[in-house]
Write a structure and sequence with these properties.
384 residues, mainly alpha, disordered C terminus
Length: 384
């Protein structure tokens, strides 16, 4: 049963529906907010946009936090604006679960059993994201669909998935970096520019040019102020909590970007199957651990990268298995009651232990790519 793709589809659907039902059943708290406020924020952004209001302002009477995504995403949330919450939340979580599962089940270069393994592996972290009614499942799906399209030599589709990821969460645009190792990059880059321009101008459907520029000015102001707000479950958070080193956010991000770019450049002339897998694994982890706003629900994206890294070995050595399952335990299980509260509150949270295995794995991948200490043997052929 556990080796059946049908079982996976059923479990993913049930997970989205059950999580939604449980959140809806909580009702409204004493402050007047729901247990699925992120969905409410996404839903409200459309109304604020079309009414000429600042979508990025505080609306404490309507929602508990700020909207931080693009104007195009606010427009795309239009169908949910008109739906009752009991229906909209269920559909929103399905949108975050099913495209991700579909992407995993269509991954090239690995066989069906490895795809199913990866789908089971990331499921607990996907549930965490859905419990917060976040968009991380959809973000991970867009990154993986860009990978799939590039492997199938479809640069126009890959550019579309990359642009959509960037307008959903800004760091989704980093899918453009591994695109540079494919021979179709000369088509991909102008296509990405065209898709990005289209999504940038999409709110013209409901806004005048003056209103649109104002909305982008508001968004830029929010992003600029938000940059100094926190260090999150990131490399920055690790440096600060472990070593007391309050590094420059821009400096750390640029250092990580240089290492990422260098590792991609190191393999661009000989992008073997293993190299391509490792590059995409690196990007999926990078966009989380170098995001100073990374939260626990964001790690479904990073764990997709951890899974790709692990699946590059037909017979992983013992050290790799230990690190892989440590990442699973600390990233997926540490926020749950499997870890006693005293351990969560005194060790896991203060020392950002959820992040540490992902940082170690990313450094290993970077070292592998830069040093080219990768076996020449290719992974098993695709079974599709």
């Amino acid at each position: 049963m556990w080796q059946s793709s049908r079982t996976l589809w059923l479990i993913y659907i049930l997970a989205a529906l059950v999580v939604s039902y449980l959140k809806l059943s909580v009702g409204i708290n004493a402050s007047g907010y729901t247990a699925y406020e992120n969905y409410i924020i996404f839903k409200n952004s459309f109304a604020h946009l079309v009414q000429g209001q600042n979508p990025y302002a505080a609306y404490p009477a309507e929602q508990w936090d700020l909207y931080k995504y693009s104007p195009a995403f606010a427009l795309v949330m239009a169908p949910f604006h008109w739906l009752p919450n009991w229906l909209g939340l269920h559909l929103w979580n399905l949108v975050n679960a099913l495209p991700l599962l579909a992407a995993i089940m269509h991954l090239p270069l690995i066989d069906a059993s490895k795809r199913r393994f990866m789908a089971w592996f990331i499921l607990p972290e996907l549930v965490v994201s859905m419990q917060n009614s976040q968009s991380n499942g959809l973000t991970a799906a867009l990154l993986l669909w860009a990978f799939i399209a590039l492997e199938k030599q479809k640069p126009l589709a890959a550019a579309g998935w990359t642009a959509a990821g960037g307008f959903l969460k800004i760091f989704g645009v980093f899918a453009a970096i591994p695109a540079l190792i494919y021979p179709t990059w000369r088509v991909f880059l102008p296509a990405l520019a065209a898709w990005s321009a289209l999504l940038f101008l999409l709110p013209f459907v409901v806004l005048s040019p003056e209103q649109l520029w104002q909305v982008y000015a508001w968004w830029w102001e929010l992003l600029r102020e938000d940059h100094s707000a926190s260090v999150g479950l990131s490399v920055l958070g690790w440096l600060e909590t472990w070593f007391g080193f309050k590094a420059s956010k821009i400096g750390v991000t640029l250092a990580g970007l240089v290492l990422l770019g260098a590792s991609v450049f190191a393999v661009h002339r000989q992008p073997s199957t293993v190299n391509r897998f490792l590059v995409w694994a690196s990007v999926l982890i990078w966009v989380v651990i170098f995001n100073h706003k990374a939260e626990s629900p964001t790690f479904v994206i990073a764990l997709c990268g951890v899974a790709l890294w692990y699946l590059t070995d037909e017979k992983p050595p013992v050290w790799k298995k230990i690190l892989f399952w440590t990442a699973f335990a600390l990233a997926s299980l540490s926020p749950t009651d499997i870890f006693p509260r005293i351990i969560r509150e005194q060790w896991v949270q203060p020392y950002v232990l959820k992040t540490v295995p992902c940082i170690i794995i990313w450094l290993i991948i970077t070292w592998q790519l830069l040093s080219q200490r990768i076996f020449a043997a290719e992974s098993p052929p695709n079974d599709q």
